[in-house]
Write a structure and sequence with these properties.
alpha+beta; Glutamine Phosphoribosylpyrophosphate, subunit 1, domain 1; Rossmann fold; 2 domains; seven-stranded antiparallel β-sheet; six-stranded antiparallel β-sheet; 18 helices; 32% helix; globular
Length: 531
Amino acid sequence: MCGIIGLFEKSSVSSHNGVSPNHNSAKKLVKALKLLQHRGQDAAGLLSSRIKNDHFVVKKGPGFVSEVFSGLPEKDFCELDGQILLGHTRYETVGGPSELNIPPFQAVHSDTNFSEGAVNNSSEKEKTPSMGIVHNGNIVNYFSLKEELEGASEGQRTFLKGQNDGELMLRLFQSFFMEESHSPKTFNRRSPFLIIQTCMRRLSEKVEGGYALLLIIEDVGLVAFRDPYGIRPLVYGKDKKGHICFSSETIALEGIGYQFEREVRPGEVIFIGFNGTFKSAKLAFSGYQKKDPIKEAPCMFERIYFASSKSQVQGALVKNTRRRLGRVLAEKVLEKNKFFDHYDAVSAIPETGLDAAYGVAECLKLPMVEGILKVQKSGRTFILPGNKRGTALKQKFIVRESEIKGKRLLLVDDSLVRGATLKSLIFELKKKGAKELSLAFSCPPIQFGCFYGVDFPEKNELLANQKSHQEMTTFLGVNDLFFLNEGDLLNVFDGRDHCFGCVTKKYPTKLKEGIAFARKRTAEKSILGIV
């Protein structure tokens, strides 16, 4: 569930060095990355189309966006300015914290060449353009594809520098690009967009998972692509000058002055050439679509937890969707407590439980109390590695005794995953004098692993998979638990299909290597000490 952003600025300047027309594009992108910080806290990075010493100019490192880019000299920002830029906030799903695993990734040119115009029948030896990538999501067959690349015959073997599926996709795309740009079928009609479409189709049929990606191709342009099921989000917008920006969420577009245009459609590839050419196409997947029709399946967890409340998803403000979920949740509480006098007040577990809590309180006609405060800049403990989560939990919340002492509280949160945060918080609330506590969630119980970018592929770490409703109630130390179900979500989402795999075990893709991936990822985290 990383955050990605890609910026294209029109320019009258020659594109060969990727020069920015405004000389502030890097600072603009850093501002946008800060607005996507909630999607990934492990690392951040920025890659420019500007070439220096045969490489794209890049700046990246571990930590928050502000930590990576604060104090950066003005000359470094100027070096990062480019006509096309890619940005990334990392949430680890494959690979550890090594700098080799921090996006953006780049692959420098090797032994073929490609340019935006048609290529004549030259026999001259050419070279591959350098490429850079950022992506959001997860490739389930990453481990087997990595073995395939590194175990190929000599001359075709590719060794990855790190352990990240973004680098894997970049290497695969680059190899397809080399093949297609020299294929007899395309030799006399080498439109970059046609070749990009073919390469992206081949990539989609090779990898298994959910993802959205942005690519820079040297001297060619910017490419955006969303997986055929639309599991991971990707949107784009324009500013008054006609510049274009892609992002995981609308909040980042709006924060740097871009007007939201639309979502990138599932299976759609968009290409912007350095000369400003804009082309898009919805890819057809004839290899398997007839047998297994592809249905749109965006991740439901985006609307419940991951996306900013200020972003739009599928035409609705996330804040409003969460309030609707809260009102439905209140009905669940009323079903059990018909003569409603069980609670004195509603209190949200900040921050993603706040909007649903307002919906609950409004429907139940109960006061909202601010019994729990989130420490500023404490980030999201859910997306932290296990070895950091425990310490962060103790520093995340402040319980206001004056607001909760002697009260029967209905606590509202977005979801129940591992339960560690809640168990610790409930203990503290009781310690500060809360009389009774119940929990209500604007999501069904998370019982099964996610393989598409949320780092809980192993179902054994999920509380609802290991314990019954009553056992969870006892474990958390509350009087009662309330959940929504899949039907409730569908109604609030206006009947639109989503991926509900983590609550129903019905996944949009076949996940042939899902179990193997979960085991290898668990083993990897154990070795890295981040379980």
